[in-house]
Amino acid sequence: MMTEQQPNAHPPQSGTAGEDRLGPRPLDRPAVDPAQAATFGRPHGVEGAFDKLYTPGTTNGRTAPPLNLAPPTPESLAEAFRRPPGAEGVLLERPREATAGTDQGPGAPLWTETSDPWRDPASGAVLAGPAEQAEAEKKPGARPAGALLSLPEVLFGRRVQPKALALLGVVALLVGAVGGLVGWWVADTGNELTGTATISEAEAAKERPAGSVANIAKRVSPAVVSLEVFKPGGNSGEEGSGVVIDPQGYVLTNEHVISSAVSDQAVKITAVFIDGTRTEAKVVGADQKTDLAVVKVNVTNPTVLQIGKSADLQVGDTVLAVGSPLALQNSVTSGIVSALNRPITAGGDNGAPPVTYEAIQTDAAINHGNSGGALVDATGALVGINSAIRSSGQDGGSIGIGFAIPSDYAIKIAKTLIKDGKVAHADIGINASSTVAGSKTMGAQVKNVAPGGPAANAGIKEGDVVTKIGGKLVRDSAELLVAVRGRNVGEVVPVQVVRDGASLVVDVTLASD
């Protein structure tokens, strides 16, 4: 009976009949990094293991190419570093302590004839015994004392004759005597407190950048003149300041500075410039109500001051006052704007009516003689004409409260004076006084009304209190006058008044004064 044979799952491998075996896995050879192979791989020409015996001239049984051996040592180096002939048995010096006695101590095994642990085993030099001790070190002894030398022997070596030595001494005495006489003469003829001083002087440059006080003063001072007002043959006169505002020689100043020349033709005005130039000034026009005047000087190419806008000033802005206070020409003081639009009343001396205007208040030092001078801003532009001060005491000195006429208003008046020689001011046609303290309404109370005047035509009556003109607040009579003069002749202005507790507004057409 025959049985059917089943096929095997795995064919039998060679060498073992009838036994199931797995085939070998494929050989996995990962890629080798060339850098690592250069570092850790076998040297060039070595294919087998390192522990195999190596026969020169063969590589794994094959003939290897000849090796590139190092060249022989140069004869000069060999001669310098090898042992000299006949010294093959000479050793280097060993420590002296190692040869003392027969017992060399615990370090003796290191210092043997055949062992040299401190040097390269390939070195040709080995250790030897210590060198012999010098005879002088073995038996130190004192040097025998020699004969002592005399002074001539030390100095001259017995080569100078005694006569020459005596002559040298005499010459030394003469030189000392002459030096003593010279010193005595200098001390006797001179003074111990006088002499030639050696003083160290600083030469560092001063910093004066654009916009500094020094820079502004240098640019502004040539345009500010000193005005001397006097009568020929008189014993006294007045002095003030002025500002050149036009290349033709027009100078703007205060009316009270030249008032005596306006009233008396015999009074002369002299303008003095910063360089000392003196020239006569002629009156062009003067306006007592604004305390402004214009004179003209005959000069060629004068320095003209740049005109600024006083309306752009703010409290706290830096300003400089330039003028001739107390006859001290070309003086400069600095400060700030303390207040703006300050109504003040000044003047009234010697029978002249007081002057009321809206001023710039400053704490820059202003004294008598500064009147008519320039008040300039931080750019050196004219923003005011110095006109008045407020002081305490009899001397009338500056206490840090000065007033200047704003340049916007001053230049407007100056142009009119140059053109016409006089100025016409706007007038409302009333006389008013400030309301008393405790009044219900603060303003300027009308005392009388000019018949047929602007106020009368508008219906303003005596007893009315003016509180506002054209939108500008009026708190006293000075502000009323300033508000009216700031308008033009013929202008229609709304005026607010309080009558019997009721407020009403009337239109007033301003007339000329």
TrEMBL record:
This is S1C family serine protease. Its EC number is 3.4.21.-. It comes from Amycolatopsis samaneae. Keywords: Hydrolase, Membrane, Protease, Transmembrane, Transmembrane helix. Residues 1-16 have a biased composition (Polar residues). The keyword Methyltransferase does not apply. Residues 1-80, 92-142 are annotated as: Disordered. Signal peptide: none annotated.
